[in-house]
Amino acid sequence: MKTTIKLLFVLLLTSSCKAQTIDISQQNGENATGVYYKDIQNLLNTFEGTYLYSEGTASLKIIFRKQVMSSPANNRFREDLLVGEYQYIENGIEKSNTLSNLNIFHSNGWKYSIDGNTVLVQGDPGCQDCLPNEKALRLGIVEESTNNSGFLIVRKTNVAGQEAIEVRIIWDALKTVGANNPAPIEPTIPGELFVLLKQ
């Protein structure tokens, strides 16, 4: 009897130590302790690559890559993320360039300028006009040089048969100016819709 009880105790202990795996499409903004939010359907892979927008005197380059088992600073959970960096040029002047940050491996994927894994489907905010089987992404973006943050809505598309993405940049409201705070600075990349061709 003692052996059976010990065996049951060991089995319970072993099963409680294993991380629960949940598909990123089921995450719902939660970050539960001990959970691995995995890209089971490999959706993030379909967004990986280098993309370029170029119109008139403006260009925006974004490079995305998938990071598996990212661990945020508190290490409570693991998650697969799409991470990225960008370069924005306007009137021949480079306004921002974070591309070199991709050369650094951050075990915490939140340390990249673009990161996230929120899956959007038809009817979700930002995906109201998505097709019935389409899956888009909502990613965070940070522009440290101007102390701004916001998010991107990223959708797959094509332009004249060439693979592309639509990226809508939505910046959070500028921070309130207080007695000890400098005046807020506008982000260098405009908050608008860009269509970027895959390179």
From TrEMBL:
Where would I find the DUF6705 domain in this sequence? 1-192
| Signal peptide span | 1-19
Keyword Signal in annotation: yes
Alphabetical UniProt keywords: Signal
Show the InterPro entries listed in the entry. Answer: DUF6705
Instruction: Spell out the protein name for this chain.
Output: DUF6705 domain-containing protein
